[in-house]
């Protein structure tokens, strides 16, 4: 998320210089990521989010408020004109690879071998291939081939 898309400043960053910590401050609780996940899967209304997640109304109200304030979701009038709905912003859509990576990690590590789970497929019904970070020359990257470089 760029600084220009975040609408509400957060003066109490956990670690002001770390992009991972800042991201977790914004979306690091399970309910926020599940709301984003469901928005990516077509949920738009408060009722849909509540039905899909089972989240308590007061918690969902707070998460939707927070995600909207931080510019990850936007509110608009539903096509029926009778209620408001929530839609992903560009910053919210940019979390797709994060959600996908969490999903793929979960497929590998959160299920017993052979245990049934949902699968993300593309528009043709083909399972989405595993994401593997690569360098500019195509070499796979991992913790042994990367390091954090401070900018200050």
UniProtKB/TrEMBL annotation:
<feature type="region of interest" description="Disordered">
    <location>
        <begin position="131"/>
        <end position="152"/>
    </location>
</feature>
<dbReference type="Pfam" id="PF01638">
    <property type="entry name" value="HxlR"/>
</dbReference>
<protein>
    <submittedName>
        <fullName>Transcriptional regulator</fullName>
    </submittedName>
</protein>
<keyword id="KW-0804">Transcription</keyword>
<dbReference type="GO" id="GO:0003677">
    <property type="term" value="F:DNA binding"/>
</dbReference>
<feature type="domain" description="HTH hxlR-type">
    <location>
        <begin position="18"/>
        <end position="114"/>
    </location>
</feature>
<dbReference type="InterPro" id="IPR011991">
    <property type="entry name" value="ArsR-like_HTH"/>
</dbReference>
<feature type="compositionally biased region" description="Polar residues">
    <location>
        <begin position="142"/>
        <end position="152"/>
    </location>
</feature>
<dbReference type="InterPro" id="IPR002577">
    <property type="entry name" value="HTH_HxlR"/>
</dbReference>
<keyword id="KW-0805">Transcription regulation</keyword>
<dbReference type="InterPro" id="IPR036390">
    <property type="entry name" value="WH_DNA-bd_sf"/>
</dbReference>
<dbReference type="InterPro" id="IPR036388">
    <property type="entry name" value="WH-like_DNA-bd_sf"/>
</dbReference>
<keyword id="KW-0238">DNA-binding</keyword>
């Amino acid at each position: 998320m760029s600084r220009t898309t975040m609408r509400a400043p957060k003066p109490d960053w956990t670690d002001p210089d770390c992009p991972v910590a800042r991201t977790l401050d914004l979306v690091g609780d399970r309910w926020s990521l599940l709301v984003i996940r469901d928005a990516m899967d077509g949920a738009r209304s408060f009722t849909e989010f509540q039905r899909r997640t089972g989240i308590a109304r007061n918690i969902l109200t707070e998460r939707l408020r927070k995600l909207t304030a931080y510019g990850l979701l936007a509110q608009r009038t539903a096509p029926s004109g009778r209620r408001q709905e929530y839609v992903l912003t560009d910053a919210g859509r940019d979390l797709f690879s994060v959600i996908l990576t969490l999903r793929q990690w979960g497929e590998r590590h959160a299920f017993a071998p052979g245990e049934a789970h949902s699968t993300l497929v593309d528009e043709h019904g083909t399972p989405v291939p595993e994401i593997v970070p690569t360098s500019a020359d195509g070499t796979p990257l991992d913790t042994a081939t990367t390091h954090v470089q401070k900018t200050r």
